[in-house]
Amino acid sequence: MNKTLSYLVWLSIALIGAGAVGGIALHRGESINALWFIAAAVCVFAIAYRFYAAWIAAKVLVVDPSRATPAERLDNGRDYVPTNKWVVFGHHFAAIAGPGPLVGPTLAAQFGYLPGTLWILVGAVLGGAVQDMVTLFLSTRRDGRSLGQMARDELGPIGGAAALIGTFTIMVILIAVLGLVVVNAMKHSPWATSTVAATIPIAMIVGLYMRHFRPGRVLEASVLGVILLLLSVFGGGWIDHHASLRVIFDHEGLTLAWWVIAYGFAAAILPVWLLLAPRDYLSTFMKLGTISLLALAIIFLQPEVKMPALTQFIDGTGPIFGGTLFPFVFITIACGAISGFHALIASGTSPKLLANEGDIRMIGYGAMLLESFVAIMAMIAATVLEPGIFFAINSPAGVVGKEAADAVATISAWGFPVTVEQMEILARDMGESTLFARTGGAPSLAVGMASIFGSAFGQSMLALWYHFAIMFEAIFILTTLDAGTRVGRFMLQDMLGNFWPKLGQTSWYPSVLLTSAIVVAGWGYFLYIGVIDPNGGVNILWPLFGISNQMLAAIALSVATGILIKSGRLRHAWVTAVPLAWLVLITTTAAWEKITSPDVRVGFIAAANDMADKLAAGLLSPEKAAVAPQLIFNQQLDAWLTLFFVAVLWIVILDMLRVSYRYLAGKPVLPSTEALHTTTQLDQAWVRD
Amino acid sequence: MVRQIRKLLGRAWQLLRTLSGDDAYERYLGLYVRHGHAEPPLSREEFFRAWQEEKWNGVKRCC
Description:
The complex is a heterodimer of chains A (689) and B (63).
Chain A (H helix, E strand, L loop, with lengths): L1 H25 L5 E2 L1 H26 L9 H4 L11 H12 L3 H9 L4 H28 L6 H8 L2 H30 L3 H24 L4 H23 L2 H4 L6 H17 L6 H26 L2 E2 L19 H8 L9 H5 L3 H4 L6 H24 L3 H8 L2 H4 L3 H10 L6 H10 L12 H16 L4 H36 L11 H24 L5 H29 L7 H23 L7 H13 L5 H43 L19 H5 L1
Antiparallel strand pairs in A: 1-2
Chain B lengths: L1 H19 L3 H12 L8 H12 L8
């Protein structure tokens, strides 16, 4: 009886899911209800989790709940601690879910709602969640070793070095593009700038509270911090209306970029307890709170998605970023579908806390599905806007024109009607002077969120909601910026320590200053170029980030595929090999296009040559001519960087194929580093609940 | 019924404390007793310093 019931329940979930996916794929009307997206995601994820993930755990990985995990065997009360599965899930999710899944889908919405949504669903189920779960499993079986160590141990030194260098460069690009998103959100917005600036002293107050006033009282301090953050949103509004105070916070993008760079350096050398750790608490609470609120608002209000399923920009002429649907939608949405970065978390903290192998599916696969769900909500928030408004906010001035009248004329001519008055009213409602060309995704997401929340809680609070959303995005972008700079510094110190051991000492202050400065200079450079680029930087930086993140995912899947084959599981190796092949295809195609395309909005070399020609012919305005040499150099540098990413990717793939071939041909390969089986002694009840 | 709800709320509160690290020191003391060390345990302040340093060493946040 129970079996029949369960069969019927899953059958109906499958039918609802198929209906919802079919509905959003085939719908061609004025608008479509956002609830379809939620239904499609929930059903697809439920089925994938119940059947595909369970099958992988049981048949491919052969998860063994009776086997003691590193947390149990190496329990030291510090980093290795057997922990309740819900707590591990929470930590894992908080670590993997950053601003990426909010920005990517917003940008990809230029193709229409359909391509991005389908890629998020399919990519997560077959790619991202599999990568996270398999990496978590492999690391758990190897005493919680990192991805780089596993690559070195199982494939050889080449794979290990590639993973390390790949991680470092991706970090630099990631921080630059996130910095750009924040700068674009704060540009000429005293309200946003003052609110974001206030998050810094607020974090410090929370840090001091937790450290000195009431040591270790994390929740008390966080409640205090969240209240102060909410007050800072109100305070920002007050400053914005204050004639003499508002000028202090009213700045050009470039000035703000310098402040972000200076802040990044200061944050990297300050002690963690003062800024990074307390702000992370705040950003985690804000993130979970806001995301849940958004989910509830979407479920109860059921807003209409107004973006068409597909736009004409699938041909590569899109204003937000250049490039055709294939491969660029898959590059633009990395986090939310598949993100290589997660492999670092899945082979970092999480395997050292896991109390039982049986929970690998829930933590590895489940947390990624939840992140994908966040990406779906970001897609909804972007597409509930009128398409004309969406494009007016997200199109850089270099594409649609600097004057409002030009911009609305261009955008309306694309078939997405919008008027100057409409944009002025919207900007006034949101408490901004203008919303034209606010690229980077954060402002349009904030407008989308504000309009969803506004319809629930009243239109009079739109400006507050808008700046609340900006603050919410900025606070965890800045957390990623600090944490990323610090990680980059550790990696650099580690590498430099090979040449001069003293530089490798993480406590030696001159080394800390030097390596922090190098890392900040690295991302600061790309941020600076992104800000001075009249085409709005996002067009260059986001694809570069996508390519590098997918490259890291391909490295993780290579390591996983190699280990599966080496451990005699060739028959099941397709589980990681298929997403790997797809990633190799899209990253290689995208990189090829970014380097060789004659379209100046896609190809780096073409863009460099085009600008050089225009500069030589004297066709550029004086202000553009002044920055042209830097932009030309940067385009060439980006071409080389892209080539470097693809080269690293292929080196790892070939290395994995070499090892797999040797194993299958019966030749010697590096031995497996899997820890020996010991039976768990843990009383399951107290840790696992 | 009321008792069940209270129990449920209590467990949710406990989960929140553990997730945020609010009860990290209590759990440390518990672990301390279980492991049976010779030297006295760290004070709350000392423990929290070490715990925070530990928590932020390495790749802890992602995109």
